[in-house]
Write a structure and sequence with these properties.
about 675 residues, alpha/beta, seven-stranded parallel barrel, four-stranded antiparallel beta sheet, 14 strands
């Protein structure tokens, strides 16, 4: 009975492979929908932080003239938008629209005794225009907070008294400076408001504000702080729902800031309610604004092409330059990064992008996607069952049945966990199966390799490289189809299990090499378990452990690289337009070719394949970076395979020369 069950299990592999092929075919139209989504928005927007410009101008002899001059240069360089924060009394003072005093200051100026029971904020406007325009903004804010605001005059200048301490008053955010707002619009800039969530949510106020934004041509809002507008009051007021309804009504979207330590609270819900009218934005920090202009330009080009970034936020700051004995800033450096000699704008346009207001992706969601994804799921479970089959054949059919039952349950209870889990297991299965089949073929060839010519060994190695790569790449349609959701492209959701993907195929390949290369499995296990532990063995395992930890530390977005490697990456990017992965074409792919070539003749060379599997899993992992466009990931993999093939053949040539030299000279060395 057990023999028959094992025979049925092995026979079922061909049906599982048919299901895998069906899944690949079904995934193709879904992948095409994703391609249409990725290419639906090619406008790139540069946004400058106006608050930074005001800060820099405060160190200039003629601040207003300096601001106007820099605005004109930014506009000419290609910066089309200005970010405006919610104003504060402190910011109005820096802009020289008001002067601020407390009760003690006024007592000193009027030669009166300090009031015993008064600690108010006193405002004096610097001219009539500021008084007429700014007064309603201040009154609107502090009246909402139920703080008394009274008119006041000091030395024939209009002012206001706010019945709250100055230290408290300067912290209250209010709508952006209307005078600056109109000035920037008159110069042709689009406005990107930056909105916080520190004050209680007020629907009536927000209706008026968002309506004014729409009338001023605002198309996107950027949040500051830890949460989006309305999050703090959502539990009691459902304010996020109300705010989303307002934004939808006025056609205004939001921007997701790349590489935040943690997502802004409430952002995902707001994005969902806005039907993902979201654009990803990359922020160039004040420190990075001083980098070489060509490096900055390369960052912009790479972000748009490789990470679906459609907005760039430019920061600048004044700094003390002791060598020049003056206050300097990075404004000129930023401008030159966009035009000559950095030429960021030209690079973006040559890559097919246009400069304008960023737009959200137009998500392609064909009606047949759900049906096709069911076939993809069927093929994905079959792929996992095949992996089980090559290690424990009698569990093939149970693995498939349990996989289908588990998939159905997870799909109902935790759909996101289901799609990510299935994508991860398929990503592990494909490169592992590819290497298992390669090792099986090598074992077969090794048994008949005595009279095999060099040319035949080379052909077998190259054919194995191609076949193995094709099987590994067959996981990619499953990953693309299962994770085809705009939340992944906007990095509002991320593929989990990257470390497991980078570790499991290596461990499984090693297991297969050690236990499944002929002989009795139980006897091999027994021999390993009875083996003595030696000092050398402990040292070797320690070294392997350290190398493994280093390898895992280099995986994912958080992996660190050296300055030399960064320079090499830049060289490869500039040479090929798309940078292939170093570990693929410099190490793993050549090792697969060389390892297969050597293993046909030398049995123990098969251990090289344990390292070579890194290239196979890396190709799949490339497509697990959903925010990278499909076209870029495909080119990256093909470049890696092509360059790896060339280097692999070169490695064989070097080995043959070295082997020939050793055979010729080793007898003489023994004399």
């Amino acid at each position: 009975m057990q023999y028959n069950w094992k025979k049925w299990s092995i026979s079922s592999r061909k049906w599982l492979w048919i299901l895998v092929i069906a899944g690949i075919v079904a995934a193709m139209p879904v992948a095409y929908d994703r391609f249409k989504t990725e290419t639906s928005a090619n406008e790139v927007e540069f946004v400058f932080d106006y608050r930074d410009l005001v800060e820099i101008a405060s160190y200039e002899a003629h601040p207003v003239d300096y601001i106007n001059e820099q605005l004109d240069q930014l506009k000419e360089a290609g910066v089309g938008s200005m970010a405006m924060f919610e104003s504060t009394l402190d910011e109005f003072q820096k802009s020289r629209r008001i002067m601020l005093y407390n009760s003690k200051d006024i007592a000193n100026k009027t030669n009166k005794t300090i009031p015993v029971n008064e600690n108010f904020t006193y405002i004096v406007f610097t001219n009539e225009e500021n008084a007429s325009v700014i007064t309603p903004v201040i009154e609107e804010t502090f009246n909402r907070l139920e703080l008394v605001v009274k008119p006041w005059t000091f030395q024939n200048q209009k002012g206001l008294i706010i019945e709250t301490p100055l230290e408290n008053a300067v912290m209250k955010p209010m709508r952006s400076d209307p005078i600056t707002f109109e000035m920037l619009r008159s110069k042709g800039f689009n406005i990107v408001p930056r909105m916080g969530d520190s004050l209680p949510y007020d629907q009536e106020y927000m209706e008026k504000l968002i309506s004014d934004y729409e009338a001023a041509g605002v198309t996107r809002i950027l949040f500051e702080g830890e949460s989006v507008k309305g999050y703090n009051d959502h539990e009691s007021m459902k304010s996020l729902d109300a705010f989303a309804e307002l934004l939808n009504e006025h056609g205004i979207g939001i921007a997701a800031i790349e590489n935040l330590k943690k997502p802004q609270l409430g952002f995902n819900k707001l994005a969902y309610d806005l039907d993902y009218n979201v654009v990803r934005i990359y922020s160039l920090s004040e420190g990075d604004a001083t980098l070489d202009v060509k490096k900055i330009a390369d960052r912009f080009a790479l972000a748009t092409k490789d990470r679906n970034i459609r907005m760039f936020y430019l920061n600048a700051a004044p700094s003390r330059n002791t060598s020049k004995a003056m206050i300097t800033n990075s404004m000129e450096n930023l401008i030159h990064s966009l035009v000559e000699p950095g030429n960021a704008i030209d690079k973006l346009e040559s890559n097919g992008f246009t400069i304008g207001q960023a737009k959200a992706f137009d998500v392609a969601d064909s009606s047949y996607q759900r049906i096709l994804k069911m076939v993809v799921v069927l093929g994905g479970v079959a792929f996992i069952a095949l992996l089980v089959s090559y290690f424990i054949a009698i569990l093939t059919i149970p693995a498939f049945v349990l996989g289908m039952i588990g998939s159905a349950g997870l799909f109902i209870l935790r759909p996101t966990l289901f799609e990510q889990g299935l994508a991860l297991l398929v990503s592990i299965s494909a490169p592992t199966i590819a290497m298992v089949l390669a090792i099986r073929k090598i074992n077969e060839l090794n048994a008949n390799s005595k009279d095999m010519k060099l040319s035949r060994r080379l052909v077998h190695a190259l054919v194995l490289f191609v076949k193995t790569s094709i099987i590994s790449l067959s996981a990619i349609p499953f990953v693309v189809a299962l994770l085809n959701n705009v939340t992944y492209e906007l990095v509002l959701n991320q593929f989990r299990g990257v470390s497991l993907l980078h570790f499991a195929p290596i461990a499984l390949t090693a297991l297969y090499v050690v236990l499944y290369r002929g002989g009795n499995l139980r006897q091999k296990l027994s021999t390993i378990l009875r083996s003595r532990i030696t000092v050398m063995g402990v040292i070797v395992m320690g070294i392997i452990g350290v190398l493994g930890l280093y390898y895992l530390s280099r995986t994912g977005n958080a992996g660190s690289v050296t300055a030399l490697e960064m320079s090499f990456r830049t060289f490869m990017e500039n040479t090929f337009g798309v940078r292939p992965r170093n570990k693929e074409f410099l190490m793993a792919h050549p090792l697969l070719i060389l390892g297969a070539f050597l293993s046909i003749k030398y049995r123990n060379a098969i251990y090289i394949m344990i390292i070579a599997v890194i290239g196979q899993l890396s190709m799949v992992d490339t497509f697990a970076h959903i925010h990278t466009p499909l076209k870029i990931s495909l080119i990256r993999n093909l470049l890696g395979l092509g360059l790896g093939l060339v280097i692999g053949i070169m490695a064989i040539v070097v080995w043959q020369i070295a082997e020939g030299c050793w055979k010729r000279w080793s007898p003489r060395l023994r004399r």
